[in-house]
Amino acid sequence: MPAAAGQPPPAVTQAVLESIATRAGEIALGYFRRVAPERKSDRSLVTQADRDVEAYIAAALVEAWPGVGIVGEEGTVHEGRGESRFVIDPIDGTSGFVAGLPTWCVCIGLVHAGEAYAGVVYLPCSGERYSAVAGAAWWNGSPLPVLNDADPVGDPFVVAHSWAHRRHPLDRLGKLRSLGSAAYHTMLVARGAARAALLGRVRVWDLAGAGAVLAAVGGRFELLDGGALTIAELLDGQRATGDVVAGSPAALADLRARLAG
Predict the structure, then answer these.
(1) What one-character DSSP code corresponds to residue 240?
(2) Which residues of 140-201 form beta strands (DSSP E)?
(3) Which residues, 6+ apart, have CB-to-CB distance to 40 below 8 Å?
(4) Hey, how many other C-beta atoms are within 10 angstroms of the C-beta on 133?
(5) pLDDT tens for residues 66-122?
(6) By three-state DSSP, how is residue 53 classified?
(7) CATH top-level class for 14-143?
(8) Torsion sign across C-alpha atoms 255, 249, 110, 136
(9) Distance of alpha carbon 158 from its chain centroid, rounded?
């Protein structure tokens, strides 16, 4: 049910978001390296862990914020009241999860008035937690600073999705890494380790939680071809109309210039 314009977002807190994500991660770890994958209609992988984690998160969100709408990758839909929607990606990086790799993560985002307002990205294997609420972001409990292109962290690299080599001249980008999770790739950008990210034609559950953290540090999602990306337009579960990139405005301009040669 749509709400009147200007309705305030739910009173989301960092502590509750992180608590839900942490418990969800514990559930997922109970299946890690001991679960059989299945194929969905779009040929992507899914496991019982994805379903059970999403069911837990949806129930926990309803308990914490009754009446708020929910959209989940594995089919959860609660219409809710108002213009806010929680978006769940129970395991971002299911292929890596199935392969026994440690870079998968639990993602919860709150989209309010069409924008990523709050979110958490939690990597159970490493214990990393990224979260954001109302323009403030944290990494493992410490505030994340605004991105500083002039003072990168360590030796910056670009992160790219696993099919990027089929569509882009990646040899022009310098150091590359592909870790199997769009949300984690975005978090590496948000904390300054990665210069930019090529995410591919992702869906809203890849973007909502991570997008809140990215926006809080001065980064953003855009389409590689320069078109605008509106998260609200993806709440129906469709893929983005083109390749999505993540970074600061300066980093995205540099990425485009390099790929254009």
Answers:
(1) P
(2) 142-143, 157-160, 176-177, 194-200
(3) 46
(4) 23
(5) 999 999 999 999 988 888 999 999 999 999 999 999 999 999 999 999 999 999 999
(6) helix
(7) alpha beta
(8) positive
(9) 17
Helix axes 182-190, 204-216, angle to 10 degrees: 10
Tens-place pLDDT, residues 191-208: 999 999 999 999 999 999
Helix axes 48-64, 14-29, angle to 10 degrees: 160
Residue ranges in 48-192 assigned as alpha helix (H): 48-64, 94-99, 182-190
- Residue 225 buriedness (CB in 10 A; 0-12 / 13-18 / 19+): exposed
Alpha-carbon dihedral of residues 107, 111, 117, 122, nearest 10 degrees? 0
Maximum CA pair distance of the chain? 52
**What dotted CATH number matches 157-260?**
3.40.190.80
Collect all residues with Cβ–Cβ distance below 8 Å to 220 and sequence separation of at least 6.
214, 246, 247, 248, 249, 252
Q: Is 200 helix (H, G, I), strand (E, B) or coil?
A: strand
**Domain residues of the chain, as ranges?**
14-143, 157-260
Q: Answer yes or no: are the C-beta atoms of 240 and 229 closer than 8 Å.
A: yes
